[in-house]
Amino acid sequence: MSRPDTHMRVLFLQKYLPAEMIGIMYLSSALKKAGHEVKTQFLPEKHWLDKVKDYKPDVLAYSITTGDHLYYLELNRRVKEVTGAYSVFGNSHATFVPEMIEEEGVDAVCRGEGEYAFAELCTKLEKGLLLRRLKNFWIKEDGKIYKNPVRPLVSSLEELGFPDRSVIYDYGECYRTVERKIFITQRGCPNSCSYCFHHAWRDKVYHASMKQYVRKRSVDHVLEEIKLVGEQYPLKFVHFLDDIFNIKDSWMEEFCEKWPREINLPFDVILRTNLTTEKQMQNLKKVGCVSARLAFEAANDQIRNVVYRKNVTLDDIHSSSRHVKEAGIRLTSLQLLGAPGGTLQDEIDTLKLNIDCKVDHPWVSLLQPYAMTDINEYTKNQGIAVDAWDQFPEKFNRTTTVHHKHRKELENLHKLFPVVVRFPFLFRMVPFLVKLHFLKHFYLVSYALMTEYMTSEQNQLWAKSTGKNSFLSIPFVDWVRRTSVKIVLRAQEVFFGKKFRKAALKLKMSSDTVVHADEAIEN
Ligand code: B12
């Protein structure tokens, strides 16, 4: 398999997603530093298998989340058959369900952070050394499975250098050409929300302290990366995808002081409600923040703080929303419907909370109790969770894998949610409307159209902030254009197969300003 005079050729096989993959970029950077060659093959793409064969990879790499793991396992079997290469899986699903090592075709499963682990694996493979004691890996060798502990977390993110964007941008044209790019300034989170991966990653995989787990890059390091990316690629809008951008007040102050001088581009952020202050919002607005996301999750205190362990008050939600709105920043909220033990009225209260907070763009998900999270144990103990990860949907915003008495009403409410936030006069009818199950397709269409319209509003904001506002960015015009193109592409996809999927994604990349958004009509 390995050529005597050379390094390993690593090939990431990756589905097109609505945003570029920072994890793969970091891995590529570490692999290249260790002397290996790295490439990404995006899917679906014409003649992709021929391209894979031409590259002659030594190592096949997959970055997988729960819901798309079956797709990648099947893909790997197919590619392994024709290349005979060594296969390595990483990311959340691999970390939390390492038992996937038992699957046919899987050679190694990486748990946790992969930079040093993956580079070491490739170097050992190249030298023909034993792999069985390699930290972070559950690994097959000589017909046996070895389960190794993780190495310590990376202590300073800066020692990793910048993520290697070329590994994505060179092979995924739509990621390179889009002028809105993702940046991540930290790893870890000090909170223990029961539905999120952080507490499981921190306490159950790493057994790490808060200090070890929560790491933030310096403002200068972040700004330097953005500057470099701007020199090499089209960049007009910065999308900070940190789980909590305002985690450290002093960092925020330094950021707001340096940003206009050094970068001066519009950007958006995700904030935590109980850390969001009026002063912060005024400062963020001044330096170019146009949109902010706040996670509400649920209006009911018991659900939000006991079941979800969010640890924020209703007052925090109201005041942070007010600060965002008063600063003139577009407010997006996130909620997680379908909490175990919640009643339909609890969900309706969350809808009301969004109306009261005058949310511009509500994002609504249905709870998925992912592996190793505490909410998973909770739902399992109550006997209301599905027990097989293979039943998880690829996206968390359509159906729930938790059983509820009022499941159908819940799914209707999910579809009505953005419509009612926008047209609050409908609110009083909601308890009645959710029971009209024969209207569920109508609700789905209204949901799709409403979320598309909200995305068009977001697009206009983006166009205005980057000086590209025109007749075409008027929300109604953008909405008609994108919706009709999507309908045509969707129809072509249904009738002529997957080859139109890439065109649909390209449209999404070029016109949406949001990621993690409900993929409306494309679903
Ligand atoms: C950006 C992001 C996205 C982006 C890009 C996703 C991507 N694949 O990179 C978009 C918007 C497309 C997205 C979509 C979704 N996401 Co998302 N996303 C994130 C987010 C906020 C940051 C990811 C990131 O870049 N982290 C920084 C990098 C450096 O870390 P990393 O990606 O974990 O990679 C490291 C390790 O995991 C490992 N590693 C990763 N891949 C590999 C591969 C190999 C071979 C090896 C050896 C190691 C390795 O090494 C990397 C470097 O240390 C995370 C939450 C978070 N804070 O991490 C959620 C998260 C990954 N998303 C999540 C979910 C649920 C989704 C969706 C299902 C949501 C939906 N639409 O319904 C989809 C699924 C899409 C998909 N198929 O991947 C969950 C996954 C839970 C799970 N158990 O699987 C997370 C953990 C959020 C959460 N709070 O629970 N997401």
Task: Give a verbal description of the structure.
This protein is an alpha/beta fold and 523 residues long. 45% of the residues lie in helices and 15% in strands. It contains 21 helices and 15 strands. It has helices at residues 22-33, 48-55, 69-83, 92-96, 115-127, 166-169, 173-177, 197-205, 210-213, 219-232, 249-262, 278-287, 301-307, 314-326, 344-356, 374-381, 407-422, 430-433, 440-465, 475-496, 501-511, and strands at 9-15, 37-43, 59-63, 86-90, 108-110, 137-141, 144-147, 180-183, 186-187, 215-216, 237-240, 267-271, 289-297, 330-337, 361-366. The strands form 3 sheets. Strands 2-1-3-4-5-6-7 form a 7-stranded mixed sheet, sandwiched between helices. It has a 6-stranded parallel sheet with strand order 8-11-12-13-14-15, with helices on both faces. Strand 3 (59-63), helix 3 and strand 4 (86-90) form a beta-alpha-beta unit. Helix 15 (344-356) packs parallel to helix 17 (407-422) and helix 20 packs antiparallel against helix 21 (501-511). The longest helix has 26 residues, at 440-465. The radius of gyration is 23 Å and the shape is globular. The two termini are 40 Å apart. The model is unreliable at 511-523 (pLDDT under 50). Bound molecules: cobalamin (B12). Residues 17-19, 21-23, 26-27, 61-63, 65-68, 88-93, 96, 110, 113-115, 118, 184, 196-197, 241, 243, 370, 395-397, 515-516 line the site of cobalamin.
> What molecules are bound to this protein?
cobalamin
Average pLDDT rating: 91
Distance between the termini: 40 Å
* Count of extended strands: 15
Strand content: 5-15%
Please state the structural category: alpha/beta
* Total helical elements: 21
Query: What does the overall shape look like?
Result: globular
- Largest beta sheet: what is the strand line-up? 2-1-3-4-5-6-7
